[in-house]
Amino acid sequence: MREQFKTAIEKPPEEIGDSKYFDNRVSMSGPSRPRRGFKFHEKGKFEQQAAKLRTKAQLERLQSEISLAAKKTGIASAAKLASILPKRELKEGEVPEVEWWDSFVMSIDKYEDFLSIDESSPEKLLLKYESINNLVEHPIQLKPPGG
Question: What is the model's pTM?
Fold first, then answer.
């Protein structure tokens, strides 16, 4: 059986052009789909993700230690410190309460609160005037997600 297989492999294939069913006018095309190249991740991508996870875990560990210490000693202010939560990460397609560029200028955390303020008195607008200047800030160009 092995010998038959070896002879079949070593035997050169018959020329297709010699067949009576072969049409010389039809050209033979190669593979229809082009080969895909390698798609590498950006350098440091996974290190950044790991660093974020480590800091998040460390924050949770510290909060749990503070809450345990507060329960043991009965200190209410320490329990309040432990309840400080990190900024909630938005899911894809979710709209934030306030955009990051407005958060530097507005002292209120929601657009709805800002719209309910009486505009006749400018001192009630609660803007952070110290953060407004005549300089133009050009943000860093980032690659779009999935691009």
Answer: 0.31
Domains of the chain, by residue range, sit at 46-85, 96-133
Higher pLDDT, 49 or 100: 49
pLDDT in tens, 74-103: 655 544 544 555 566 777 788 888 887 787
DSSP codes, 66-111: HHHHHHHHT-HHHHHHHTPPPPPPPPTTPPPSS-HHHHTTBSSS-H
- Give phi and psi for 146, each to the nearest 5: 80, 10
H helices present in 36-75, as ranges:
45-73
Nearest to 114 by CA among 103, 24, 17, 95: 103
* 3-state DSSP assignment of residue 12: coil
Please give the average per-residue pLDDT across 14-40, as a whole number.
77
d(CA 124, CA 68): 41
